[in-house]
């Protein structure tokens, strides 16, 4: 089979689901996972440390406990992480050329309407508008 006929796998087919245990050997009840990135940094949330296993450092976090976290601020992602029952189920994907840590780059791409990527962009935008875009109430003073 030539390179031209090999179809590149979509990032969605590489999603991994795992469970995050409490920190191994810490005895303090802390999670065995640390996160970085977030919409406030223009990035997807990603794993920065996983001493308890169950995740790979550098992977992009798609969901925590069934809640989509793409487009959330780092504080909101940590809030979701800390509010889930243990062990926490997370969905991650390794960054690649089509889905890297740069949130702005992904949102600037054009995808076919209705495609998985287009739907993901919409979900990200909804999370951004709910959590990161300041909202002002304007009173009608007429």
UniProtKB/TrEMBL annotation:
GO biological process, one term: signal transduction
Residues annotated as domain PDZ: 19-96
Protein name: PDZ domain-containing protein
Source organism of the structure: Cyprinodon variegatus (Sheepshead minnow)
Any single Gene Ontology cellular-component annotation: cell-cell junction
């Amino acid at each position: 089979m030539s390179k031209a006929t090999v179809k590149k796998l979509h990032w969605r087919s590489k999603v991994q689901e795992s469970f995050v245990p409490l920190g191994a050997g810490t005895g303090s009840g802390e999670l065995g996972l640390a996160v970085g990135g977030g919409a406030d940094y223009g990035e997807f949330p990603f794993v920065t440390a996983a001493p308890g296993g169950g995740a790979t450092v550098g992977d992009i976090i798609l969901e925590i406990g069934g809640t989509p976290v793409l487009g959330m601020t780092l504080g909101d992602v940590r809030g979701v992480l800390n509010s889930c029952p243990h062990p926490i189920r997370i969905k991650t994907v390794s960054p690649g050329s089509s889905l890297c840590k740069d949130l702005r780059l992904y949102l600037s791409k054009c995808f076919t309407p209705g495609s998985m990527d287009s739907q993901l962009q919409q979900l990200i935008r909804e999370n951004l508008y709910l959590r990161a875009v300041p909202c002002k109430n304007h009173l009608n003073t007429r």
